[in-house]
Design brief:
Shape: globular
Helix content: 40-55%
Number of helices: 10
Distance between the termini: 26 Å
Strand content: 15-25%
Strand order of the largest sheet: 3-2-1-4-5-7-6
Radius of gyration: 17 Å
Structural class: alpha/beta
Largest sheet: 7 strands, mixed
Length: 230
């Protein structure tokens, strides 16, 4: 994640971050259920690498469903990671989780993981940075390990984009965004984030030594992908 976005999350704080995301729990729950269905063949005691854990919502949800999974969570925003640790502790999950403060590129371990998750991170990363993340994830996965990631993804030149943008604004209005922020959403999407189209995303996954990339979820501009290490 680019340093400027890390600072944005540091400044936002845990309470504001969780408050905004609480408006979209039903959306996230749907994605988590579908994620589980793509991972039916991994062991009951699977080891999971989580890149960009935020305040831990994804780990908590998936840990409750899969009692034997253990997690390694990574995040460069200390405020978010501290909030994650506190929430994990309150949920009684600390013994099943390890954490690393920093970027995936700084993480060093001999551990190999059955699956890796990266939810709502990659649209903050340019194409070069994404390839580095994909390659690093691939390094830490076991043979045929799973990679699941969700991000904002669309073709900005598509005829569907104006309607999707209106839906996206409605979603953010539901989350309490001001009209000023809504008016600026298109500029943010086009100029501040690093958004790839679905076809570009699929191509990048294949270039980074993953196979069988499948988009298994979409909610307006958010898409989630599942692929496996070659």
């Amino acid at each position: 994640m680019a340093d400027k976005f890390v600072q944005i999350f540091e400044d936002m704080g845990v309470e504001a971050y969780d408050g905004f995301n609480s408006n979209f729990k039903s959306l996230s729950k749907n994605m988590h259920i579908l994620t589980m269905l793509t991972l039916q063949d991994i062991p009951s005691d699977a080891k999971i690498l989580c890149v960009g854990v935020g305040t831990g919502a994804d780990i908590i949800e998936l840990a409750k469903i899969n009692k034997g999974w253990t997690f390694t969570g990574i995040d460069p925003a200390k405020t978010m990671l501290d909030g994650c640790k506190e929430k994990i502790k309150k949920e009684g999950l600390s013994e099943r989780c390890d954490f690393f403060h920093g970027y995936l590129s700084d993480f060093q371990s001999d551990q190999k993981y059955d699956a890796a998750f990266c939810f709502f991170v990659l649209h903050f990363i340019n194409t070069k940075g994404r390839k580095e993340i994909y390659s690093d994830v691939n390094t830490y996965l076991k043979s045929k390990g799973h990679f699941v990631h969700a991000e904002i993804s669309f073709d900005q030149n598509s005829e569907d984009y104006p309607l999707l943008l209106n839906h996206w604004k409605s979603l953010h209005r539901h989350g309490g965004a001001t009209e000023e922020k809504l008016d600026n959403l298109d500029t943010v999407l086009r100029e501040q984030l690093s958004i790839l189209s679905p076809s570009e995303t699929k191509k990048l996954i294949l270039e980074c030594d993953f196979k069988d990339p499948v988009q298994f979820f979409q909610s307006f501009l958010i898409r989630a992908w599942h692929s496996r290490k070659n």
